[in-house]
Design goal:
- There is one protein chain.
- This protein has a 5-stranded antiparallel sheet with strand order 8-5-7-6-11. Strands 1, 2, 3 and 4 form a 4-stranded antiparallel sheet that branches. Strands 9-10 form a two-stranded antiparallel ribbon.
- The termini are far apart.
- The chain is an alpha+beta fold.
- The protein contains 5 helices and 11 strands.
- Helices cover 34% and strands 31% of the residues.
- The longest helix has 33 residues.
- It has 2 domains: 51 residues, no CATH class; 217 residues, no CATH class.
Length: 276
């Protein structure tokens, strides 16, 4: 049986046993089962966290914590921009309902065999950026943040002698970007047509709150759209070393009122012309 604890003390996230000081936080109003903690809904629980001692992290943990902090800030900014764009379209009675959710988007550069285990990531970024610009123009995307991921599979020669059996003879490279975009709703066929034209493959879906059921306890809880977007970005940032995240469009610090309103007007005029 799960116990309902009045409070529970635990160490800070993104710390390890190598950290000089892991810090402590006290969690109020939590369900505790083994190493699983379930926090009450924020609207029902005013006091959720209490700091007891700040952490002093080691370099790897500090880098991860800072990456998560920046990802949090970027997703907050993207959600804020989505709401701003939706409010503008609501004020002009045109397509407000099309801006309800951020979107997960995956773009694929190439999936090919090579005799080398290295990939030209500079060329990959340049190619993906050029294709993204064209996709954004066609699908009215105004902002986003992306992480480029490289995966590869080695193939060995089964007919070589035993001394060289473990040496790969070829690699299958797959380079693609994972992004969270401020993108309006479009019919699936339209998205598929545009993606097929520019990148060949596509994976696009709205980020909506979802209910998750814990396999151990059977308890259901809601994962917010914000948490999904943040975890999505952090997942790919932490999968391989030296991975970078880039933000573009409205989310960049150079956003001006002229740029914001000008782009909203351009998209609005485009949609109105398509209705005629």
């Amino acid at each position: 049986m799960d116990a309902i604890e009045e409070s529970l003390v635990r160490v800070y996230p993104n710390t390890c046993e190598e950290c000089p000081e892991r810090g402590e936080i006290e969690v109020f109003g939590s369900y505790f089962s083994g190493d699983m903690i379930y926090i009450y809904d924020h609207s029902q629980e005013e006091c959720r966290w209490k700091n007891i001692g700040w952490p002093v992290r080691c370099k790897p943990c500090n880098a991860k914590a800072q990456a998560k902090k920046r990802a949090n800030s970027t997703i907050h900014r993207l959600e804020e921009l989505r709401e701003m764009v939706q409010d503008w379209f609501s004020a002009h009675d045109c397509g407000e309902e099309r801006w309800c959710y951020l979107k997960f988007v995956t773009l694929t550069w190439k999936n090919e065999w090579s005799s080398s285990n290295e990939v030209d990531m500079k060329a990959a970024r340049k190619w993906l950026q050029k294709k993204r610009l064209k996709i954004c123009d066609k699908l009215d995307v105004v902002a986003g943040t992306d992480v480029i991921e490289k995966t590869q599979k080695a193939i060995y020669d089964p007919y070589s002698d035993s001394s060289s059996y473990q040496k790969p003879i070829a690699w299958l490279h797959n380079v693609h970007s994972h992004g969270v975009w401020v993108m309006p709703y479009h019919p699936i066929k339209e998205i598929g047509r545009v993606m097929k034209k520019y990148v060949g493959r596509d994976q696009t879906r709205a980020i909506m709150p979802k209910i998750v059921k814990d396999k151990k306890t059977g308890r259901e809880f809601t994962v917010s759209a914000f948490a999904q977007a943040r975890n999505y970005i952090m997942k790919y940032l932490s999968k391989q070393p030296n991975t970078r995240r880039s933000s573009w469009g409205f989310v960049r610090s150079g956003l001006t009122a002229d740029t914001f309103y000008g782009e909203c007007i351009r998209i609005n005029d485009k949609w109105l012309s398509l209705k005629k």
